[in-house]
Amino acid sequence: MNRKPIFAANWKMNKGPSETEDFVKSFLSKLQGSNFNSEIVIAPPFVSLAKLADLLHTATAVQNAHAIQIAAQNCSQYDAGAYTGEVSVLMLREFFVHYVILGHSERRAIFGETDEIINAKIKKAREANLKPIFCIGETLAEREAGNLESVLRTQITGGLKDISEKDLAEIVIAYEPVWAIGTGVTATSEQAQDAHAFVRSVIAELYGADAAAKIRVQYGGSVKPGNAAELMACPDIDGALIGGAALEPQSFLDIIKNGTPSAE
């Protein structure tokens, strides 16, 4: 199955509008002339979405600028109302957002998001035709206790509850072992491949072999230019969700370049 790799920069709570402008101008300059057979996504903080959208939509003279998709780092499960601090999917659509990161381990651990909340957000995102990047992953304690598969199965089945196969086709799954996020520790290519293959097997159980073969599953967790090629060479890994290493234009570009076998 020919799945197009997707490389997404999750800036987390970094880069306001001015820093976003500096990054994008540098990144587009470095990207010019490249021809990657992959999808590039940038997820800035909410306050930088407008600047990113403006930069990408006015940089028409730069090759591949149009190919960069915008993602939000979160969304509300509600449409509107008395929800201080929340941002709705319809608001995101006004900034030309195509993707939204949901279920990230930091949202789960720090902000108490449950599988039920994440499932509601995925449904709300699809109502607005946004494409969820649905994050799953185990802690080190869960892995060492032999609970990797049970944790991933619970997160997948809970997050995708009542999601149709049609909507599944517009979802990207991001497997991020919590113990490898921002720690500098990366899962070995064998560990990552085994987890990705298991994720695909659960999707096959829920939706069938064809859906499982088509869905893209990213790896996230201390991805760097130096390990991108080995990780992306794994048959079930379809790109990366990148944190710290995507804060610097050259680093992000090198991950895409090294992780895209057919890059020219």
Proportion in helices: 40-55%
Total of DSSP H or I helical runs spanning 4+ residues: 12
User: Which parts are unreliable, with pLDDT below 50 for 5 consecutive residues or more?
Assistant: none
Structural class assignment: alpha/beta
Mind explaining what this structure looks like?
This protein is of the alpha/beta class and 264 residues long. 44% of the residues lie in helices and 15% in strands. It has 12 helices and 8 strands. It has helices at 17-31, 49-58, 89-93, 105-111, 115-127, 140-144, 148-159, 165-168, 189-207, 209-214, 225-232, 249-259, and strands spanning 6-10, 39-43, 68-72, 97-102, 131-136, 172-175, 216-219, 239-242. An 8-stranded parallel beta sheet has the order 7-6-5-4-3-2-1-8. α2 links the parallel β2 (39-43) and β3. α5 crosses α7 (148-159). The longest helix has 19 residues, at 189-207. The two termini are 21 Å apart. The model has no long low-confidence stretch (mean pLDDT 93).
